Amino acid sequence: MAATDQSRTDAPFESDGGLPVNALFLILFGCFNLIYGVLLIPILNGSLRSDNGATNAMFVIAFAIMIGFLGMTPVGSFGESRLLFVIGLALVLFGSVAFVSPGTLHRAMRYVLAAMLLALGLIRLPMFLVRLRRSASAVPISFRVPYVLMHVLCLLIGLQIVFHWPDWLLVPELVLLGICQLVLGGLAVRLGPAVPGAVPYSASHLLLGRMKMSMRSQLMLLLAVTMVFMAVMVVLAVMRIAPYEGSRASVEFVFITAMQVMLVGSTPIRDFVPSWPLAILGMVMASAAMVASILPGLIDGALGAAIGVSNLLTAGFGSVHLVGAARRARALPPGSSRRFLWRIVIVSAITYGLLIIFGFNLLVPDVIPGTVMLAVLLLAGCALGWLSTLLDKIPKPGAAATAA
After folding, report:
1. Phi, psi (5° rounding) for residue 76?
2. d(CA 164, CA 166)
3. If we measure between CA atoms, which residue out of 198, 75, 195 comes closest to residue 146?
4. Rounded to two decimals, what is the model's pTM?
5. Which of 96, 147, 187, 303 is surrounded by the fewest CB atoms within 10 Å?
6. Residue 334 contacts by C-beta under 8 Å, 6 or more apart in sequence?
7. Which residues are in coiled coils (predicted)?
């Protein structure tokens, strides 16, 4: 979980001279594919135990965040929109079911991932070739070759998933795909918006009904919805409708937190302007979550402890911000602004209190009764979701330094 210092909320995430999001995700997926390709060697030899269902689900969740929060889809880049936001959020939840519930929706998840990869090869690649034919000089040749190769490899992997080709073919395909994506990510950093699929990230707000939400608030809302979803999955497990793995939930929380760090600079200590050090930190965290997805049980406990510490840090540093916010609220004259700031202070205080309990339970499991923790998870998700709808309504960026 990441704290939010509202004074930093509107800092631009620029494509020109900043951090191009297409480059970030190319590098991120390059790391994912390279790690998976290398780990497949001992997995296929029987030295390591893997979980293909959870791995496919994690790839779908990563794709879904690109689609819903950045408008980057397998068939083209469209920018942010309400429709894509809803589709992305639905895909995240769909992938979460397969991720935290062993044996559930794994077949469906396999074909969803295959459809995304096939779309890259059968739709996006021809579109690029048509564009290249019209204006070859618009894309440097150093970018064209790995870009075409990346889409061809995506097509081959998608066909392999559909037709169940031998698994050993995935090793060279994934390693080569990862190398191509890392090369393309480096080139995209240097070339900027000139590369295909470039999506300049800005501090502009996405309209969700009557609400305007910044990227930071959208990711906070995603975390809140995921917490409520995990509470629902616990109930389904108790009713013996679907199995539930709590350690996998911690891995998914790590991945979402990694996206907050990488994309908007949100950390448990405070919010920062997005930067390469934070982007690299987010990629490392996301890669650790991917390793945990591929090799269940290997580092799940460590990631759960990390999320527990993150929650405690968020609550601790956030409480410091709340003291200043409460002082500013008392100093304001009676009126709507004062009431609104007090509302944020109260909701934030409730959220931090619940996060302390949640974090403590992750560090010292089985001390707090399961029923209590279920209520805490549900209430924390609801409080965090409410808070995500309030932060962007603050009139001035420095008016309240509160969040979760």
Report:
1. 150, 165
2. 6
3. 195
4. 0.87
5. 187
6. none
7. none
